Amino acid sequence: MRPLEGMISTMMRARNVTLLAALGAALPLALAAHAQDLRGPLGASQTAPAPAPATAAPAAPRGVSEAVAAIVNDEIISTYDLGQRVRLLIATSGVQPTEQTLPQFEREALISLIDEHLQMQELRRVEKEQKFTIIATDDEVNQEIESYAKQANMTGAQFLAALAQQGVGADTFRQQLRASISWQTWIKGRYGSRLRVGEDQIKAMEQRLAADASKPQYEISEVFIDASRVGGQATALQGAQQLVAQLQQGAPFASVARQFSASPTAAAGGEAGWISPGEMPPEVDAALEQLRPGQLSAPIPVKDGVYIVYLKEKRSGAGSTLVALKQAAVALPPQPSPADVAAARVKLEALRVQIKGCDNIEKVAAGVPGVVGGDLGEAEMTDLAPQFRQAAETLKPGEVSAPIQTTVGLHLVAVCSKRASNGQQVSHDQIENRLYGQQLSMISRRYMRDLRTSATIETR
Fold first, then answer.
1. What one-character-per-residue DSSP string does 160-181 give?
2. What share of the chain is helix, strand, coil (3-state, %, to 5)?
3. What is the C-alpha to C-alpha distance for residues 179 and 120, in angstroms, rounded to an integer?
């Protein structure tokens, strides 16, 4: 039997044309279970509308052209099952199917189906031995569907109808939910009560955070493509490049993370929260230094895969100076004449004597034709443009600068306030919960690794 990844790749290439034709030209529905879609360059937050009455796309009848896609411990995964899971992946990720992206969908779909079969086989074995129920009931699955639908501003029936319009049977979605709910319940029930986060671990984390307090912190969302899971680093990089292209075209980051990320944060739509330098691989730290809030990274190759990160927010570390500024400005052409600059300077100097700091700079500027007033907000001193930084460093709160020339105009800058940043503050309970979650996630990954190692898995 060949390695699983190689066999999957071979099988995927053989079925690309058939599955792409089956999917048709319909765009994927950006289902907002996923209502954590990001803003900015990734597109505005999307809310899926209630589906208009339409005839659901017919699913291929079982048994007509059905074949074996894989066998997991004598259980068959059919090509129908695989095709349905591919459709579900497309519908819930917001990524458009193309000849370039389809192999990635197929690979993820087959790996997910294999893992779910292993999980359900293990849960049934445990239920039989332990004589208690673990597998989620229909009521629990229905509650989860309603939860997804609520985030998408739909009812459960509308949500399933929206999937049906994409050719996804309700049973396909229910099976995925049942496996996910049951496995999480089992892992937490079996190991959660045994886990203990010691005070020494919490104290060590507190000390590390204190040492990093002077460094900037980043609030990020992440997608991690595991090279060993998808068949190698080259495949992981190619897949990440395709996902970045789709994200730039508006695919919801949270949906993409849920379906493609191998990170523990995938269940939370890729939300990693606030991190400090050193918590991520060095390559990711270097990329974050170059990003500004609202920007999406290019694929970031690391030792065992590829990251995609979205920088939601950045804050300075303790000891940094934050300054709040307002301005009054006169716009200038790209290459102003000396007469243009002189006229703007005279106008601003006359205005300057009327300004009493931040209290009235915008009101005074609004009363002079050709002058625009505005609040520049609060920023770290080192992030300011050089011309503004010099004024911000030398002026006291309430003082106004002399006219400052930039490439866009001439400015009066008023310093509203200066303060030291307090850095990141994390409570004892937050640290404990973070460590607990990390340990539980590690246990789940090891459990799945052992199940794969001991299983007999064949792909056709």
1. HHHHHHTT--HHHHHHHHHHHH
2. 50, 15, 35
3. 6
Alpha helices by DSSP H, 338-379? 338-352, 361-366
Q: How confident is the model at residue 178 (pLDDT cuts 50, 70, 90)?
A: very high
Report the C-alpha gap between 120 and 451 in whole angstroms.
11
Query: What pTM does this model have?
Result: 0.59
How open is the CA angle 377-382-386, to the nearest 5 degrees?
A: 90
CB atoms within 10 A of CB 69: 24
How many Å apart are CA 39 and CA 42, to the nearest integer? 6
Q: What is the pLDDT of residue 7?
A: 36
- Give me the residue label for tokens 């792409």: 20
Which phi and psi (to 5°) does residue 428 adopt? Answer: -60, -45
The domains located in the chain, with CATH, are 4-195+445-459 (1.10.4030), 211-318 (3.10.50.40), 321-420 (3.10.50.40)
Query: Helices 253-260 and 79-93, interaxial angle, to 10°?
Result: 150
Q: How many beta carbons lie within 10 A of that of residue 360, not counting itself?
A: 14
Query: Residue 373's beta-bridge partner residues?
Result: 328
Burial of 110-140, coded b for 16+ CB within 10 Å and e otherwise, reads bbbbbbbbbbbbbbeeeeeeeeeebbbeeee
Q: Hey, which residues does 380 pair with through a beta bridge?
A: 322
Residue matched to tokens 């307002």: 326
pLDDT digits (tens, 9 = 90+) for 120-152: 999 999 999 988 899 999 999 999 999 888 877
Residue the block writes with tokens 């819930």: 92
* 3 state DSSP class of 168: coil
Task: Supply the DSSP symbol for 278.
Answer: T
Alpha-carbon distance 449 to 63, whole Å? 33
Distance (Å, whole) CA 103 – CA 16: 7
pLDDT per residue as tens digits for the range 249-270? 888 999 899 888 988 788 788 9
